[in-house]
Amino acid sequence: MAADHVDVLIVGAGLSGVGAAVHLGRECPGKTYAVLEARGAIGGTWDLFRYPGVRSDSDMYTLGYSFKPWTDPKAIADGDSIRAYVRQTAREYDVERHIRFHHRALRAEWDSATARWTVHAHRDDTGEDVTLTCGFLFTNSGYYRYDEGYTPRFPGVDRYAGTVVHPQHWPDDLDYAGKRVVVIGSGATAVTVVPAMAERAAHVTMLQRSPTYVIALPSRDPFADAARRWLPP
Fold first, then answer.
1. N or C: which end of the chain has fewer CB within 10 A?
2. Looking at the whole model, is its pTM more than 0.85?
């Protein structure tokens, strides 16, 4: 079976992948392209992560698109708002029809003689193996395996009678109301999840290896709020 060919193949339909597709469509309208997305939804990180309080740790005026400026009052935005922003962008700029969902890119091979990439993907929905070729391969899949997540080895955890949860695989039905919780780590995820869980849990303890410098800031940017009244997007 002949492989599908496009000028540009984008891997990932998250914030970066959708942005890449829009820029390509605007700057090179004559180029054909496809977007491979391993999961069944647009949004990448912001669709996958559903732990309490999930939000950006960068202001969205910087993280957002230059062609679609962030207009929400919250500069430090929650996950739901960012996911909606990415999906709205994909609809507005006709990116959706170029996305091939459930296509997990496995490997790519470059051939100098033909100046082409051959990309091998697997369809998680049908079990089929798919081959595509392209002149330019653009990966927007990040540098972590988001669907697995790193879990350190904790000797004796098998004897623990409580519930162990990884934030990247947060159960929809997890009830932690009135429970005593320990959050291991003090990075961006921990700083996000601790105050959110503290609203319902009996007690939340952050267990960290080394001290972290943390300051409290409002989610709204007063300067941006004021500037928005006088300056264009």
1. N
2. yes
